[in-house]
Amino acid sequence: MVKFTVEDHDGNRETIEAPDDMGLSLMEILKASEYPVLATCGGMALCATCHVEIMEGQAELGEASDVELDQLENLPEYFPTSRLACQVRIGPILEGAVIKLRGEDN
């Protein structure tokens, strides 16, 4: 299991514990934890509605892929630490990370 913190659109923080041996994406865990993540494309890196900002722990995640960057760079609000939650796999690299929701909150 891996623990990380999620900050919602209102600034509230909650620690999430997720299995790190199932190949799940951060998007899947956020949706399962009932966060308002649209994920319109279902995790195909086509819509950027699962946009998150890695506030702490971004160095461990490495760089975003070109496909991911193509989507992120088209957003009205894009940060150097922005990622698509559908492209981040749950694993030990997320231990202690702080993730802020940035996508649409509908």
UniProtKB/TrEMBL annotation:
Gene Ontology biological process: P450-containing electron transport chain
Can you provide one Gene Ontology molecular function annotated for this UniProt record? electron transfer activity
Which part of the chain is the 2Fe-2S ferredoxin-type domain?
A: 1-105
| CDD domains assigned | fer2
Pfam families for this protein: Fer2
The domain of life for this entry's organism is: Bacteria
Q: Which cofactor does it need?
A: [2Fe-2S] cluster
- What keywords does the record list, in alphabetical order? 2Fe-2S, Iron, Iron-sulfur, Metal-binding
User: Hey, which family's this protein in?
Assistant: Belongs to the adrenodoxin/putidaredoxin family.
Name it: Ferredoxin
